[in-house]
Amino acid sequence: MTLGVSTLDNQPLVERAVADLGGRRTSRLREKFLVDGKRRDEHAIQFFNPVWIEKLGSPAECAEEPVEREVRVPASRHCSLAERGQLASAMAAGERIYLRPFASGDGRHVAELSLRETEVVFPEGRWVVNADAVDRYNQMITRADLPDQVGLAIVLRESDELIGVMAVFSIDWVHRTAETASEILRPEYRGGGYGTEAKHLLLEFAFDQLGLHMVYSSVSESNPRSAAALRKQGYRFAGYTAWTSFVASGLCGNWALDMLASEWRDARDRNQRGNA
Amino acid sequence: MTDDTPAPGARSDGQAFLVGPNLYVRAVELEDAATAPIWRRQPFPAPAEVVEEKLKERLEVDDGDEEMKNQLLIACRRDNDQPVGSVELEMDGWRFGDVSFRIDPLSTEARQREIVAELIGMFVPWLLGERNLMTLGVWDYPDRPEVERQVASLGGRIASHFREMVLVDGRRRDRVFYQFFNPVWLAKLGMPAEPRMGAVEREVRSPARASRRVSSSDRPEGAMVIGEQVYLRAFKPDEGKLVANWAMQDPEVYYPEGRLIFNPHTYGHVHKATAEKELPTAIRFAIVLRETDELIGANGITSINWVHRCAETETEIYRAEHRGAGYGTEAKHLLLEYAFERLGMHMIFSFVGETNPRSAAALRKQGYRDAGYIGWDSFAPGGLCGYWAFDLLASEWRAARDAAADKAEG
After folding, report:
1. A108 within 8 A of A159, measured Cβ to Cβ
2. Beta A214-220 vs A177-184: how paired, if at all?
3. Which of B42, B106, B345 would best serve as a mutation to test chain A binding (most A beta carbons within 10 A)?
4. Chain B residues in contact with A198 (beta carbon < 8 A)
């Protein structure tokens, strides 16, 4: 139905060829590649099968957001811990939540919460999670000396209760990029800023501890709340890829978002100066 | 909890060494897996089960001496037995030891400095005074007054200073290597030469030139980076036979350990094994003459740290007739271009035995900065010799290359 092609920016011959073949650029992830010492953007190109264009019509196009943009909820500095106490397993700590490695038994919580989920946000709907598979997977990805993904549990400081999960994955250690994802599993903690607080701790980990240069995220258009949250956190809307999933009304697409380490730090530092 | 379990805060009671006013040190235990984010060197989260597996892999060795050569120790608070960090103790025989610390990254910088200062105060007297090491090295960050005072009080000195070596909380930080000398051996041998720290502003007598871009018909087989006279390609395992043969014919002695016999099969195998890793910690190239496709040497980067983006460089030119002709320098700059421009390394470092002044001179010409001197590292004809340390930032290498290109155009 559709074909995606990844190219570098600033390649006029490629752009002409794409246009001649009826393709279009769907997203631009900034500074995604290191090539000959310079950071280059990734252009994602999409081609549509004309048979399906005729049946379904041409999918919507969405322009990317300008680079200069407002960050409505920038990061604050993480909390230092004079006393570890119950936070002995914390990798990063905020005011209300902390991030820790997954522990045995987290799979069971995730499985239970998935069956109690009342909202349908993914195009593929809700699914049944196997607790053992979750625990085994979380152990497997951490055995590598240099993992290509990192998962963290989001935990309330007050009660040590697991409320969500998040990850940095598809880590490319040469280009220093990765995709981010997060999910607040307990509905009562959505919309309360916990996800944003956790995301900024994750971004601090990704940028300041792992040295990543940029991150990106992919959000289904069936989940506009998630996209709105990312934009508040400072991600930039980088484009839209159509026809990625089946949904109740037919097909839906994915939004792409990007964020540079430098932008995230600038917003955090301005926020700190503003609070000082 | 068994009857033998001490009450919290009582664990160090009766401990007779490696105990200070606020901290004590003990061996790592499988139970420490639960507090790994406090002490584990790797920056990645891992479930306690995986940390415990990794600890077992490390500790379940067939020869107890193996564990003693590279020990992982945990530093704890005396008042409540909580871990505050870890210590890696590496012993090179019973003569030279090397200590590095990983202190809880969520504690404040001030607290981390206090802990390191107290730990140095425990380890130096124990390792020099009781375990009779000739010399001990300790890694830390510079500009930590508490630590510097402790080092000075114990007679230590900065042996090397590597710029922007690590990434900590989003900032590049330097690393220093302090060296302490056993006073018994100082009395016998005298103090080793003072380390020399090169100026940051310095002349680069042989800067890089950009590598060549060639058409597919001109591309040497397997070439990964191409210069004017040489190119770099993967080392072929069966070339081990050539290298082993040349090593037996080498008239020059430049390593303190003298000339070596290489097993050709092992030499080839090592290169194959290195290349099999998805994200290697060492990369090696064959240096080949463009004109004749003749193998003349090898170079590479080792100890690659993909998080901190630093690595060590090394080069060997196999035969005397190819040394001193600029091939090594050209090959080195091709390697540096690869390391900095393709792999995104931030800085590199190198070590050269003081029995090899020609190699040290070459590095200085190529733009490396003198980063210090470590004394009493190896046995040598005159007794003991040390090695020089060097560093080079990607930004400096690029600036020298670009300045040379501008000058050539102008």
Report:
1. no
2. parallel
3. B106
4. none
- Strands of B169-294 (E only): list them: 171-181, 223-226, 230-234, 283-289
B344 and chain A in contact, CB less than 8 A: yes
* Closest Cβ–Cβ partner in B34, B106, B279 for A81: B106
Interatomic CA distance for residues A81 and A92, integer angstroms? 10
Sign for the CA dihedral angle at B117, B121, B122, B125 comes to: positive
Contact: A88, B344; criterion CB under 8 Å: no
Cβ atoms of residues B136 and B128 within 8 Å? yes
What was the ipTM of the complex prediction?
A: 0.86
Tokens of A30: 């900034």
Q: Are A254 and A223 in contact (CB under 8 A)?
A: no
CA distance B41 to chain A (A): 11
**B282 within 8 A of B276, measured Cβ to Cβ:** no
Q: Which of residues 129-188 of B touch A (CB under 8 A)?
A: 167, 169-170
Q: What is the pLDDT of residue B253?
A: 85
B interface test, pick of A78, A80, A172 with most B CB neighbours within 10 Å: A80
Q: Is B304 on the interface with A (CB under 8 A)?
A: no
Please give the model's pTM, rounded to 2 decimal places. Answer: 0.92
Give the other-Cβ count within 10 Å of B319's Cβ: 16
Closest CA to B77 of B103, B98, B43: B103
Q: Mind telling me how many Å the CA of B129 is from chain A's nearest CA?
A: 34
**At how many degrees (to 10) do helices B145-153 and B109-124 cross?**
10
Token couple for A97: 């939540």
The helix/strand/coil state of B218 is helix
Closest CA relative to residue A202, chosen from A74, A91, A86, A73: A91
Q: What is the mean pLDDT of each run of 10 residues along chain B (410 residues)?
A: 70 91 95 96 95 94 80 95 96 87 96 98 95 95 97 98 97 98 94 94 90 92 96 93 90 84 90 89 96 96 97 94 93 98 98 93 96 92 90 97 90
Phi, psi (deg, nearest 5) at residue A36: 50, 45
Residue A91: list chain B partners with CB under 8 A. 37, 45
